[in-house]
Amino acid sequence: MEVLYKSKTLQNFLEDTQRLSDLYGINAYKIVQRISELRSSDNLNSFKCLPTPKCKVINRSDEMKFTAMVSENIKLIFDSKKKKLTKTENGDIDWDNITSIRILGIRES
Fold this sequence. Notes:
Blueprint: E1 2-5, H1 8-14, H2 17-24, H3 27-40, H4 44-48, E2 56-60, E3 63-71, E4 74-80, E5 100-108
Helix pairs in contact: 2-3
């Protein structure tokens, strides 16, 4: 899958393992692992089927964002590069059709 970033600054930060490690400690490895899993997946459906990411949809107004769990309190936030997502016959998101995502950031809760 194609993985893009919201900004060049975010990309540089997420690709700098030392800075990630300074801020997130042991979870830095998991953040890098999630991004690697996204890249190696054919589409969001194959990523969603992995046991650890627990990929979920966040629906806020017209924006549809996704989360992937990094740890119990850290989530990777991303959206689809396509602004209009296709739906299946039963009205669900066509996860197979999402082949490019844009990482928006990391959320701690």
